[in-house]
Amino acid sequence: MTEQGEEIIRLDEVYKIFGPQPRGRALTLAKSGVHKNEVQRQSGHVVGLTDVSFSIKKGEIFVVMGLSGSGKSTAIRTVNKLHDVTHGQVIVDGTDVQKLDGTALQAFRREKMGMVFQHFALFPHRNVIDNVGYGLKVQKVDKEQRDEAALRALSLVGLQAYAHNATSELSGGMQQRVGLARALATDPDILLMDEAFSALDPLIRRQMQDEMMEIQGELHKTILFITHDLNEALRIGDRVCIMKDGAVVQIGTPEEILTKPATGYVAEFVQDVDQGRVIQVHEIMVEPRPISSGTSLGDAISGLGDRAGAFVVDSEGRPTDILTAPDGIRAAGMGSSDLAAGLRQDFEKTSRNATLNDVYAAAGRGLPIAVVDDAGALIGNLDPRHIMEEMGRVESLIDDFERETFM
Ligand SMILES: Nc1ncnc2c1ncn2[C@@H]1O[C@H](COP(=O)(O)OP(=O)(O)OP(=O)(O)O)[C@@H](O)[C@H]1O
Ligand SMILES: [Mg+2]
């Protein structure tokens, strides 16, 4: 994060106007600083981007964040010339993208960048390895080399075992991983990711973010990542660019965005990042995996793995008891092999949509919390360590930032 690579992507005073006469009055108005809504009212043209400039360095994860319609997709599409710009310049690795056409443009897209989108279209009739190797096939790489590269990419996303499965056999999260592997298979310098994780459920989404950062730690790509979720932006971005109504509002490190919001608009966003208020229980709970009846104390203890505890449920699936590692070990130490000797009943329950603030006090007891549905059945296991970690994450970001800045 601290090392400053050389610039690889630059947008320079980019305007994108949609409509029949993009370079007419709408552009003049936008250039004189007239707001998008007013430009639309006066000219009937839609402002996609207005005076957008940013510079992305090699090896950086640069996140563009903004609400729906703020211009994020329009911005990323100027980088591979899926959109022409109305005014301004887009430079990628020294090349003026607007000047590319035909085969040169195709080669540029193919060799320089990989793309991952929200609903990544995989070929349903091809298996995983052929999907991943597709970009190389287009480049006329022979099958053996193609498969080798595809397997390497699949192992990066942990899916090498599924190489020969049909893509339709994979879950949404796994399909999105295949999408990422496909983008990585050609070993491009740049990854363009537009809401790549937005359709995934929160648990899988976090896993994907973690995995992507792990992969990035190894491969050092340049990643332009689009999201409408500030939490995601702050979590993965080396720098974050906040957009509103087609314009850039602020560009900074997550620390700067959090501690020095440039405008009231950003400040309002940042307020919402109060982890306890925003994050709901279902986002961090883990699979309940209750202890099955008849399990011995010893087996139940080793079955805990790295979980803080596990529940016992009744015939309706409702949690009745909990086994924690310390309780279990204590009971076993006293010579018992009976599961009941290690159980306790004084655990807390919550619902999937409760916020972390709601369960914060209960987490202080250090016992896992049972997440139950309306009928009282166990649907998740909430580890107090995960609650504290999640709530502490932004706080520690701010602490570190202040320490570095003021000491
Ligand atoms: N092809 C197009 N024709 C006309 N207007 C467009 C076109 N593409 C985008 N726009 C407009 O440009 C603006 C920015 O759209 P864009 O798709 O970039 O937003 P976004 O930030 O990606 O939003 P979302 O989060 O919904 O994907 C919007 O006002 C949109 O209506
Ligand atoms: Mg979009």
Detailed description of the structure:
The chain has helices spanning 25-31, 36-43, 72-79, 102-112, 128-132, 134-138, 143-156, 172-185, 202-219, 230-236, 254-259, 264-271, 275-278, 281-284, 297-303, 325-333, 356-363, 384-406, and strands spanning 7-18, 46-57, 61-66, 87-92, 95-96, 113-117, 190-194, 222-227, 239-244, 247-252, 309-313, 319-324, 343-344, 349-350, 369-372, 378-382. Among the domains are: 7-11 and 53-123 and 189-273, 3-Layer(aba) Sandwich (Rossmann fold); 281-389, Roll (CBS-domain), CATH 3.10.580.10. The radius of gyration is 25 Å and the shape is globular. With 407 residues, it is an alpha/beta fold. α9 links the parallel β7 and β8 (222-227). Strands 6-7-8-3-9-10 form a six-stranded mixed β-sheet, sandwiched between helices. It is built from 18 helices and 16 strands.
State the gist of this model.
The protein is an alpha/beta fold. It is built from 18 helices and 16 strands. Among the domains are: 7-11 and 53-123 and 189-273, P-loop containing nucleotide triphosphate hydrolases (Rossmann fold, 3-Layer(aba) Sandwich), CATH 3.40.50; 281-389, CBS-domain (Roll).
Coarse structural class:
alpha/beta
Helical segment count: 18
Q: Kindly, what is the distance between the CA atoms of the first and last residues, rounded to a whole number of angstroms?
A: 20 Å
Approximately how much helix is present in the residues? 40-55%
CATH superfamily of one domain: P-loop containing nucleotide triphosphate hydrolases
Q: What value does the average pLDDT take?
A: 89
Strand order in the sheet with the most strands? 6-7-8-3-9-10
Tell me what portion of residues adopts beta-strand conformation: 15-25%
Q: What are the distinct ligands in this entry?
A: adenosine-5'-triphosphate, magnesium ion
